[in-house]
Amino acid sequence: MDYKHYFIIFMIFLAFLPLDVFADSSIDISLDLPIYTKSDIITIFGNIEHDDSINLMIIDPNADIILNETVLLIQGEFTYNLQLNDYDLNTSGIYQISITYHDTNNSTEIEIKKEFFYDAAQNVNPAGVDIERISESDQIPIFIIGIVIILGIFLFLARHAIFRRKNEYDDEDWQSKKNRDYEKYHSEWMSDEQEFSGKEKKEIDENEFLKSLQGKNISDYYGILEIQKNASQSEIKKQFRILAKKWHPDKKHGPDAEKKMAEINM
What φ, ψ does residue 147 adopt, rounded to 5°? Predict the structure, then answer.
């Protein structure tokens, strides 16, 4: 067999060999974004001669190690995705990512280092945020506490009306309750200008008053109130209140009481 046949056999042998038999292992990191956030992915890709492992490390701007793990790879081309959402990247700044693997051809350790900028302010991922809600079991005591607070405020504002002591006038069905005469004569806050007749007094002019005085048509009001004619205004009002309480229909019964009450109310 001549050299020509050996050459043809050798070429056929090379044609059936895997393409990566003489290829060196090559690994790289894809960082194609200017700014990375929590929802982004860093891709590690390459081609290795045989099953091997790589050491993956991420260091934050404060030189703290965020990730340090070993990844097993199968011979041939590979792609490994690094999801940033799986790690606690809480600081904005420049992060360093490095890969270390063994080159069997040269029997050396190869290290690849790259940097990327990470923005921690955009870490809020609406799809990955757990919304805290108040459960139904917690809503019940909160609702009860709200009702108790409202009732407490109501009782505090209405405490005087609720806890007021009733007197004899409140227990009986008095006729004066209909026109509120009792309050008129017993109120401590009654104005000195209050009228007690229950009716508006008719105004009379000076001429009518003089004629009535000459004809003695005006009753002796001082005598009715049982006071001296030189009594002061405060003494007259005080005596009127005393007689009004004394001869009030709720206190006295009979025609005399009504007559006396009518006289002092003239």
Answer: -65, -45
